[in-house]
């Protein structure tokens, strides 16, 4: 039973992380999967969301912190919306000079903005506490739920150990539910959007931008909307991460975890398919976690094992590109069937 | 003011780092114009070259090949031999990557190639990290004094003069190759219109191989020169410079190798001079901001033609 509790705790942790990645992958799917916009700066928007939410909801700076600003202690939902807003605004700044040009320019600019954001997080201590990171970010409803479960456990001292341990972790279960609810709502919105006339236009842009422009669609504005919407979702993902981790620092948003793995998730799951994006997130995070167990049995140092796991993910990407570029769940060819 | 008095010295640092960025940029530009995609693994080709040189140099030292420094430079025959062989081996390795991945994906279009290059980038970087660890490695631990050149208190190390000289020599060589050889002409033709080039009987596969030879060879050179300048190499060496390289390429006009040289120089100098005014940590951000401004003002770049 001890083991069972350990496994359950791991599954909850796993699903919270995979669900957060699912949010990022949904954001990328609207940009890349549906509109064909090549964003390789996901980590930047993800970090922006996390830090914005931390600044809005977090505690005021303590005496030993380098930061002198922020910590407004506002409710979680304000942080979540603020995260989406700030990421969206930065997306406009990136999109404005690049969306009229070949998609390569957007790719380069998104790498640039992600790197610039990382530099700001590292250097502007007054805002972000620099490399020491932002600490003690509050988790929504933590006191209520944790307090209730503690009270229940105090009132029932004779529970079996494993039930006791499960109840003691009830906040994690709550947070998992929260992540899944956010993921599901975003999924429903995205499904509605891609089936709307707006969705048809952005997919038309993905297939042939010139032809879409010829039909009188203002493609720049549609591309901008898709870029901003995707970035806002990534900001929400960052907020969800920050309030669970409760501690964020610039290293949490390196290109590998922030950008690359999300790409592999979407491509494996199936670019252009929202279900695929979510499936890919759980699958790739499962592979990633699985290789962690595997490399423990190999005679390599911790850094070597980490490199080996990344090499495996890179190989996985190339294998998908070579042999199954459409992913596990390819986008449906026809969204409507005539009866 | 001390800041302003430093500027001539920073200009010289800028020319040194601009030389390295330009050498990297030529390859990115050629890959873009001839193979049609932005190669995000180019920085890691630089790191690969730097590590192959390190491996060979260690091997040669073990074999007892002498490395008595050439005059005031920090290295001698042994390292020079490793340098030249590393360029060749990097080119071969990159051609193998092309055969294994890029060639098979060419039909899938430029975006799939771009994505594949990101995978190659991450894979290569971690292969280097697997074998050599993320810790820095040194070509030479000797401290080389900088010499005053007698203008405005500017000081420069002999190694740095070597870097600038090599960069100039290679730029002239690439120019001559592109301008006066049959292969150079074929490369320019293919950059203009790949289908038309193929119809006129140009062996496009050979052109592609030569593109990689030049691009990867210059990348390896840039990586090794960066190692000489910084005194150490890490697997992140190229990836860290990639943003500056791309900024230089875009600034000069994407797809134009001469633009890449000019743009790389401007980026290198701007990054170094900016340190007189803002934190050194923001160097890559300076490159990024210059690139964005260029895209807003003239997206085709300084030397770009209209598409």
Uncertain residue ranges of chain B: none
Question: Could you tell me which chain pair has the largest interface and how many residues each side has?
Answer: A-B, 43 and 45 residues
The level 1 CATH classification of chain B is Mainly Alpha
Low-confidence segments of chain A: none
According to CATH, the fold-level topology of chain B is ABC transporter involved in vitamin B12 uptake, BtuC
Describe the protein in words:
The complex is a heterodimer of chains A (339) and B (307). Chain A is mainly α. Chain A is built from 14 helices and no strands. Chain A has a domain at 18-254. Chain A has helices spanning 2-34, 42-57, 76-98, 103-123, 125-128, 142-155, 161-168, 170-195, 197-207, 209-214, 219-245, 255-269, 274-296, 302-323. In chain A, helix 2 (42-57) crosses helix 11. Helix content of chain B is 73%, strand content 3%. Chain B has helices at residues 2-35, 42-63, 77-105, 110-132, 158-180, 182-192, 194-199, 204-230, 237-252, 257-274, 283-297; strands at 137-138, 147-148, 155-156, 232-233. In chain B, strand 2 and strand 3 form a beta hairpin. The longest helix of chain B is centred in the first third of the chain and has 34 residues, at 2-35.
Keywords:
heterodimer; A: 339 residues; mainly alpha; globular; B: 307 residues; ABC transporter involved in vitamin B12 uptake, BtuC; two-stranded antiparallel sheet; two-stranded antiparallel ribbon; 11 helices; 73% helix
């Amino acid at each position: 039973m001890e083991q069972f509790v350990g496994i359950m705790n791991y599954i909850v942790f796993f699903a919270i992380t995979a669900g957060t990645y699912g949010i990022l992958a949904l954001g990328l799917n609207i940009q890349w999967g549906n509109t064909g916009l090549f964003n390789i700066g996901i980590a930047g928007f993800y970090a922006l969301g996390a830090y914005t939410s931390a600044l809005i909801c977090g505690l005021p700076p303590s005496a030993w912190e380098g930061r002198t600003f922020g910590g407004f202690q506002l409710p979680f939902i304000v942080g979540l919306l603020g995260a989406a807003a700030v990421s969206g605004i930065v997306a406009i700044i990136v999109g404005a000079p690049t969306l009229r040009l070949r998609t390569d320019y957007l790719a380069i600019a998104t790498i640039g903005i992600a790197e610039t954001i990382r530099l700001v997080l590292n250097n502007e201590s007054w805002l972000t506490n620099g490399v020491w990171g932002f600490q003690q970010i509050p988790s929504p409803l933590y006191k209520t739920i944790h307090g209730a479960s503690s009270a229940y456990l105090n009132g029932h001292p004779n529970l079996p150990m494993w039930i006791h341990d499960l109840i003691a972790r009830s906040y994690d279960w709550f947070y998992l539910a929260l992540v899944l609810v956010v993921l599901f709502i975003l999924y429903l919105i995205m499904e509605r959007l891609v089936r709307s006339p707006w969705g048809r236009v952005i997919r038309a842009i993905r297939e042939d931008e010139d032809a879409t422009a010829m039909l009188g669609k203002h493609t720049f504005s549609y591309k901008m909307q898709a870029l901003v919407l995707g970035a806002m979702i990534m900001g929400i993902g960052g907020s969800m991460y920050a309030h669970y981790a409760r501690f964020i620092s610039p290293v949490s948003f390196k290109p590998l975890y922030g950008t690359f793995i999300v790409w592999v998730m979407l491509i494996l799951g199936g670019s252009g398919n929202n279900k695929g994006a979510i499936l890919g997130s759980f699958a790739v995070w499962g592979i990633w976690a699985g290789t962690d167990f595997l490399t423990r049995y190999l005679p390599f140092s911790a850094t070597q094992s980490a490199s080996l796991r990344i090499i495996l993910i890179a190989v996985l990407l190339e294998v998908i590109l070579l042999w199954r570029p459409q992913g596990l769940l390819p986008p449906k060819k026809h969204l409507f069937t005539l009866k | 003011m001390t800041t302003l008095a430093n500027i001539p010295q920073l200009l010289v640092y800028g020319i040194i780092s601009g030389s390295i960025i330009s050498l990297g940029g030529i390859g990115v530009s050629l890959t873009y114009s001839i193979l049609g995609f932005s190669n995000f693994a180019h920085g890691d080709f630089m790191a690969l070259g730097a590590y192959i040189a390190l491996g060979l140099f260690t091997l040669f030292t073990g074999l007892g090949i002498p490395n008595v420094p050439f005059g005031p430079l920090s290295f001698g025959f042994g390292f020079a031999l490793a340098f030249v062989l590393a360029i060749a081996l990097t080119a071969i390795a990159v051609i193998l990557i092309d055969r294994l991945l890029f060639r098979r994906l060419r039909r899938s279009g430029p975006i799939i190639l771009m994505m594949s290059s990101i995978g190659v980038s991450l894979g290569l970087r971690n292969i280097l990290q697997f074998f050599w660890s993320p810790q820095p490695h040194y070509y030479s631990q000797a401290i080389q004094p900088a010499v005053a050149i007698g203008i405005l208190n500017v000081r420069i190390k002999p190694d740095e003069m070597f870097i600038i000289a090599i960069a100039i020599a290679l730029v002239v060589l690439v120019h001559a190759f592109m301008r006066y050889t049959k292969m150079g002409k074929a490369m320019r033709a293919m950059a203009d219109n790949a289908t038309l080039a193929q119809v006129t009987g140009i062996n496009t596969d050979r052109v592609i191989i030569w593109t990689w030879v030049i691009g990867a060879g210059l990348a390896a050179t840039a990586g090794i020169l960066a190692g000489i300048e910084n005194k150490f190499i890490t697997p992140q060496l190229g990836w860290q410079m990639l943003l500056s390289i791309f900024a230089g390429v875009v600034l000069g006009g994407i797809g134009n190798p001469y633009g890449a040289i000019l743009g790389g120089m401007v980026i290198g100098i701007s990054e170094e001079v900016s340190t007189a005014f803002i934190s050194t940590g923001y160097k890559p951000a300076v490159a990024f901001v210059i690139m964005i401004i260029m895209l807003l003002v003239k997206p085709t770049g300084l030397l770009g033609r209209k598409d």
